[in-house]
């Protein structure tokens, strides 16, 4: 893509390199998408990257599949593995719950990105 990738937005290292669609900093191991940092000026929106259980980058509006059975407080049955969840929103949640969504039969809730896979 670029001959000279931009410096790292976290540590200002000049020795960044490209790896597929990401730019990587060898000093602090930070990874980011160059288009986001260019449009945001290296702001906070370009710094947040949420990945699913297998390493795919998630975005608002994606559909995901739950990869393991989850217990739900107040419900005799939990969410089964293989349940598809549509139109997710990425949030800064509590205790690692970074996905806000509606699950059929359960309603609105937050999930951890480590228990879902991009559909």
From TrEMBL:
Domain named Protein YjdM C-terminal is located at 50-119
Q: Where are the transmembrane segments?
A: none
Check the record and name the Gene3D superfamilies matching this protein.
2.20.25.10, SH3 Domains (2.30.30.40)
Q: Which GO terms describe its molecular function?
A: hydrolase activity
Q: Report which superkingdom the organism of origin falls in.
A: Bacteria
UniProt family annotation = Belongs to the YjdM family.
Keyword annotations for this protein?
Hydrolase
Q: Identify one Pfam family in the record.
A: YjdM
Residue stretches making up the Protein YjdM N-terminal domain: 6-32
Q: What InterPro entries does its record include?
A: YjdM, YjdM_C, YjdM_N
**Organism for this UniProt entry:** Streptomyces regalis
- The name this protein carries in UniProt is Phosphonoacetate hydrolase
């Amino acid at each position: 893509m670029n001959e000279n990738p931009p410096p790292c937005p976290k540590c200002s290292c000049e020795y960044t390199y490209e790896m597929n669609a990401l730019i990587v900093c060898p000093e602090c191991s930070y990874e980011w998408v160059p288009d986001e940092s260019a449009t945001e000026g290296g702001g906070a929106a370009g710094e947040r990257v949420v990945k699913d259980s297998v390493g795919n980058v998630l975005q608002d509006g994606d559909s995901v599949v739950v990869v393991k059975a989850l217990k739900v407080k107040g419900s005799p049955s939990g969410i089964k593995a293989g349940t598809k969840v549509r139109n997710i929103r990425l949030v800064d949640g509590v205790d690692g719950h970074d996905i806000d969504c509606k699950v059929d039969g359960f309603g609105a809730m937050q999930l951890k990105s480590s228990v879902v896979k991009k559909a």
